[in-house]
Amino acid sequence: MEKYAKKLKIRIVFMSIIALCATIGFICGAFGVFGEVGNEGYRDFFSGFQSGLFAVLIVGTVFKIVRYIRALKNTDICKKIFICENDERTMLINEKSGQRLFVCCGYVLITAAVVAGYFSRTVFFSLIGAYILMEIVFLSLKAYYRHTM
Amino acid sequence: MRSRIKELRKKNKISQDELAMSVGVTRQTITSLECEKYTASLVLAYKISKYFGLTIEEVFDFSDVEDF
Asked: Are residues A43 and A94 both part of a single domain?
């Protein structure tokens, strides 16, 4: 469990860096540092999308940081988190549903969508559509394996 | 694979949560094992058997396993 506690400390540092970067991104987005694109409707949507993305990152990372800090203070919570992460059935379900592949592709698609959003509206919506479809397939596969295993 | 986990658990008055925490898996994994939906790995089978103080063969039924 000591090794896992060290791992959690490293994760806290990593998450804090992400949260900080996302906060800077959110503030920059609010002040229009990233520049303006397209017509007014699309511009609002795109900046809203970016702000939403940063907000989700901030909330997600802060939630995880709080969870990990609580785990470091309480060994029971630490053990529960460790078991949840290392449960062999859960790991098999994740492996079978291709979690790593879907997560990696998801990050690439979202990043590509944000970059492409500055150049083409069509490509932006296509990439977001592809990401949503991919998430639906992934969640369906996960639900199927959870039900059958 | 059939197992005697549920029977042994009830005999020893242990909840799924307690057993799960002791062998390092989630409660859902114990449920799946009891419902014969999931086959435990060798390590998990060993941990469960050790928990009840029995051998793997005494907890898990290998009669369905085909010989080659």
From this structure: no
Give B61's DSSP letter: -
The answer to whether B8 and B59 are in contact (CB under 8 A) is yes
* Structural domain boundaries, residue A48: 1-86
Its CATH class, for the domain covering B5-58, is mainly alpha
Residues A111 and A56 in one domain: no
Other beta carbons within 10 Å of A16: 13
Q: Which of A49, A68, A86 is the last residue of a domain?
A: A86
**Closest Cα in chain B, distance from residue A133 (Å):** 28
Contact B26 A149 (CB under 8 A): no
Q: Verify that A131 and A109 share a domain, yes or no.
A: yes
- Is there a contact between A128 and A113 (Cβ–Cβ < 8 Å)? yes
Taking CA–CA distances from B45, the nearest residue in chain A reads: A88
- pTM (two decimals): 0.81
Report CB contact under 8 Å: B44, A86: no
pLDDT at A120: 86
Q: Write the ipTM.
A: 0.87
Instruction: State residue A121's pLDDT score.
Output: 87
Q: What gap in Å lies between CA A50 and CA A44, rounded to an integer?
A: 10
* Same domain assignment for residues A52 and A125: no
Residues of B in contact with A79 (CB under 8 A): 21
Mean pLDDT, contiguous 10-residue spans, chain A (149 residues): 88 94 88 72 82 92 94 90 92 93 94 89 92 94 92
